[in-house]
Amino acid sequence: MIQNLEAEILASHQMGREVFLLKLQAPAIAAAAQPGQFVHIRCSETLDPLLRRPLSIHDVGDRGELVLLYQIKGRGTAWLASQGAGNKINILGPIGRGFTLPANKRVALVAGGLGIVPLLFLARRALEAGNEIDFFYGAQDRERLYQLETLKAMKINLFVATDDGSAGFQGPVTKLWEHYLKERSYDRSYACGPRAELAEFARLVTRFSIAAEVSLEERMACGLGACRGCVTALLDARGKIYYENVCTGGPVFDAANVYWGDQVKWNKL
């Protein structure tokens, strides 16, 4: 059930250039949240800006804390970054379709840049379900590898890539993952990141016949499926294109159902 509540800010920390980690006291939402879901935040004390901002749930704490990791993109998120501990903000959530989580399997998580946001929470829940996790995390450079120490403290197999080679493998994280796909098998895989990177992820999972889910990002207005402002192109069972709301049909989708244009030729798993 979607909650509408005033959440108190417990802490707000700048993690990098225009990237902030926000911790809220929101026990009702934290208790109901599933990895891959998001919250819709009113980023103003007035009606300007009018539209809420959707932020994926980054993590939850055991005392009702809700953790968000986001980048300033405009007036709304700039206002959010200006808010400090003790202030309250209005949030709706949890919203959307989350990841499908197996138990006692080997899974791969592939995060590109701020694609780390929903995958940290997923990794935590996947561990709780007894899964073995290979986590592949890529960014432009070492400074943009957010939450790296948190990941290192988790019982996962962590593999890092940077475009400039300042940390780990030099090159795209999907290229690093492709190397391990040749020697390791996975029951399921998950990804979040830039669209081009997700398309390459989709190409690899069809090549190696791995069930996979992706978290997509689209601009949203209502966040509740009424306005049709965040549609994405999908493929039906006959290979015909249709459109679905990211806010309610997703933001997590089966990678085999996403229309990637001519970038990926799918064989249904």
TrEMBL record:
Q: Which Gene3D superfamilies does this one have?
A: Dihydroorotate dehydrogenase, electron transfer subunit (2.10.240.10), Nucleotide-binding domain of ferredoxin-NADP reductase (FNR) module (3.40.50.80), Translation factors (2.40.30.10)
For this UniProt record, the keywords arranged alphabetically read as follows: 2Fe-2S, Electron transport, FAD, Flavoprotein, Iron, Iron-sulfur, Metal-binding, Transport
Which positions are annotated as binding FAD? 53-56, 69-71, 76-77
Entry's Gene Ontology molecular function annotations: 2 iron, 2 sulfur cluster binding; flavin adenine dinucleotide binding; metal ion binding; oxidoreductase activity
Superkingdom of the source species: Bacteria
Whether Ribosomal protein counts among this entry's keywords is no
Tell me one Pfam family matched here.
DHODB_Fe-S_bind
Q: Which cofactor does it need?
A: [2Fe-2S] cluster; FAD
The protein here is known as Dihydroorotate dehydrogenase B, electron transfer subunit
